[in-house]
Amino acid sequence: MTTAELNPLPSRSVFLGVDVGTGSARAGLFDENGKLLGSSSSPIQIWKDGDCVEQSSTDIWHAVCAAVKSACSLANVSELEVKGIGFAATCSLVAVDAEGSPVTVSWSGDSRRNIIVWMDHRAVQHAERINSFNSPVLQYCGGGVSPEMEPPKLLWVKENLKESWSMVYKWMDLSDWLSYRATGDDTRSLCTTVCKWTYLGHAHMHQMGEKASRDMEACGWDDEFWEEIGLGDLVDGHHAKIGRSVAFPGHPLGNGLTASAAKELGLLAGTPVGTSLIDAHAGGVGVMESKSDSDSLTKDSDVDTLCSRMVLVCGTSTCHMAVSREKLFIPGVWGPFWSAMVPEYWLTEGGQSATGALLDHIIENHVASPRLANRAASQKVSVFELLKNILKTMAEDTSSPFIAALTSDMHILPDFHGNRSPVADPNSKGVIFGMTLDTSEKQLALLYLATIQGIAYGTRHIVEHCNAHGHKIDTLLACGGLSKNPLFIQEHADIVGCPIILPRESESVLLGAAILGAVACKNYPSLHDAMKALNAAGQVVHPSSDPKIKKYHDAKYRIFRDLYEQQLSHRSTIAEALA
Q: For residue range 17-49, what is the model confidence (pLDDT) as tens digits?
């Protein structure tokens, strides 16, 4: 017996979620209550050279297989118990030839390097050129494509790596490539195509109730857009290279796991695989229906609750996800994307390109960093925990009214990798205001706190901007690595002025991916039903009730906004001088 269908039903149903982030592939197994049974991760290779950031799909698949086998072993889950699988990944661009082998996207010519990573900024000028055409599709991504989306990257490859361009048989988002590698089915997700490729998902509104919607022909491509920007060859063969068919996230692909993929993963051939999600969107699916006790009392309906929330998926970067029943056009914020996360809802997606990455950068490049790391290791605590303790002591020693006030002389604009939203300026630069000759651990602790605050002011800017354009966000949910940092979460609650719900299970992106598998194996009638069954709230972090803290952050927020305006003014002053 080689397929999942032929085996007798075991005592429990387990759902497997796989998430490929920037630095690792992770696998998690969840039961029918959404409880994590076990997880494992495996590192993946990354090449960075200036604006170019690349990975290898071969290396990633090996890491996925290792993580899945390890998670099953740790959780003591047999292949018979795994009822469905879902994949989530960063929105990186994968190039493969007709045999499915990697095609290089690297100046180096290294054939392993066939992925342009999401954070790669080689195509800034190509994004500007695409935006200059003012195509109608651009209104569905905040008014313009970002260099982190796929069309600018594709244009870069066509113009700079002609041999690779002619060899590529399929261009795929990484999460679509993973499900293709697992099932042999080339159907693309509405999540990836709509959010990163300018696909117009609302072309499928009338197909919402159809049973065969997983085989939907891709009718949402705007051929004129591709012709206009110089990529008309991607329209050929009914868009064969970029996606001939699309499906709602969670729809079952092909005949489930192929025999070869099943063997590599240590699972059963035929195990259902759900159409994939981008990692941040999987985080949204993993937390968005987490209900706190007060929710059920204050909101009129489930729709009201869902549409008053924003999910922060905070890891290397932060994505800000909110849904609405109506389509809302918000300048500088991606979307509205129809059914790209929760079916039948429009998605608004804000973001900050470097958050966890920025905190690491600030800490690791400080002269006190090695001393701090050694002290943290000897005390058996994380560097973040140690920095928080240093800040506590500093507040006591200086009789500071509250910890946040320690940064009264230090202000940070966190745009070290540009501004994704809401000003949508990839050329924006980071600013640190208030430096001295001090190189102590205490000074690093202040920098760390001011950076967290700068990131939180950026989130406040996004929330205010979305609410000014029709959203009614009054509650945040947080998941991802940074959500496990209490100082990061409390500063966000105080600065944005909203309660923050943390999920019961800390691995929300893995849960979101596993939910795709639960839908694919027909355990739930819809993605939304699965979310309601498997999402669960944990701790709720409330904003401080101290009016002095609010007044302080309001003042710092004005300075934060001013730092960007000053940068624009400085930019034009220098441009005039060099003209």
A: 999 999 999 999 999 999 999 999 999 999 999
Distance between CA atoms of residues 452 and 439, nearest Å = 19
How far apart, in whole angstroms, are the C-alpha atoms of residue 316 and residue 481? 8
Amino acid at 337: F
Q: Are 286 and 512 in contact (CB under 8 A)?
A: yes
What's the burial of 572, exposed, middle or buried (CB within 10 Å: 0-12/13-18/19+)? exposed
CA distance 130 to 305: 37
At which residue do the structure tokens 């694919």 appear? 520
Chain CA centroid to CA 273, Å: 21
- In angstroms, the CA 27 to CA 67 distance is 6
Cα–Cα distance for residue pair 9/384, rounded to 1 Å: 46
* Cis bond before residue 422 (omega within 30° of 0): yes
Identify the H or E element spanning 16: strand 14-20
Q: How far apart are CA 167 and CA 155, in angstroms?
A: 15
**Number of C-beta neighbours around residue 368 at 10 A:** 18
Question: What DSSP designation does 148 have?
Answer: T
390 phi and psi, to 5 degrees? -65, -45
- pLDDT digit string (tens) for 382-395? 999 999 999 999 99
Query: Hey, CA dihedral for 133, 137, 139, 141, is it positive or negative?
Result: negative
Q: What percent of the chain has pLDDT over 70?
A: 95
Residue 371 contacts by C-beta under 8 Å, 6 or more apart in sequence? Answer: 441
- Spatial separation of the C-alpha atoms in residues 279 and 351, rounded to whole Å: 13
- CB distance 412 to 432 below 8 Å: yes
Taking 60 as the threshold, does the pLDDT of residue 3 lie above it? no
Is pLDDT above 90 for 298? no
* Residue (of 454, 444, 427, 465) closest to 368 by Cα position: 444
Among 296-310, 332-346, 396-410, the minimum mean pLDDT is found in: 296-310
